Amino acid sequence: MLILAYIILIGHLALIVWGGFITVLAKSLVRALIGLIMTLFGVAGLYFLMAAPFIGLMQILIYVGAVSVLIFFAIMLTQAASTGEEAQKRRKKYPTSMQPNIKESVGGLRDSQLIFWIAQTIYGVRNLKELTGKLFTDEEYREY
User: Fold this and answer.
1) Can you list the positions of beta strands (E) in the chain?
2) pTM of the full structure
3) Which of the four pLDDT bands, split at 50, 70 and 90, describes residue 109?
4) Interval 44-81: pLDDT, tens
5) Which of 34, 45, 119, 137 would be 12's cystine partner, CB 3.0–4.6 Å?
6) Confidence at 105, pLDDT banded by 50, 70, 90
């Protein structure tokens, strides 16, 4: 019976450490929140192992439930940085030949999508490479 308790203890400690690594090393805020939730569940399991079920249930109810949901809503309701991993994936979905995506593009109206759309409409260019040297430099083109 004691060996089983040690195995469960090691499992909870592994869950806490693994969740901590996910929280610290995640590039996405939502994935970091998942790691935090894993860590908080591991701590609640430790309370249950210490024969403190009330504190374990409060850990789950307050921290895993309420605080994690609050952090999740804070992440969702605040605007993510335009240089983050999620924004890069969103911009790759939309090719530069579409109309400018003002809401999700880098720099809003100053984005190269807007420049390309205007140049395509007015000057009839077919790709961004034709605009290098005229509207932006080769280095700016490579960066985009």
Assistant:
1) none
2) 0.56
3) very low
4) 999 999 999 999 999 999 999 999 999 888 888 876 55
5) 45
6) low
d(CA 130, CA 96): 13
CA distances from 32 to 23, 72, 116 (A): 4, 10, 36
CA distance 37 to 51: 21
Contact call for residues 15 and 38 (beta carbons, < 8 A): yes
Residues 6+ apart with CB under 8 A from 88: none
How big is the chain, counted in residues? 144
Report the amino acid identity of residue 72. Answer: F
User: In this predicted model, what pLDDT tens digit does every residue of 82-103 receive, in sequence order?
Assistant: 566 666 666 666 555 455 555 5
Compute the distance between CA of residue 34 and CA of residue 15 in angstroms, rounded to an integer: 12
Output DSSP code: residue 120.
H
pLDDT more than 90, % of the chain: 39
Cα separation, 107 vs 84, whole angstroms:
14
CA distance 59 to 48: 10
Secondary-structure percent of the chain, ordered helix, strand, coil, rounded to 5:
70, 0, 25
| Dist. CA 11–CA 115, nearest whole Å | 55
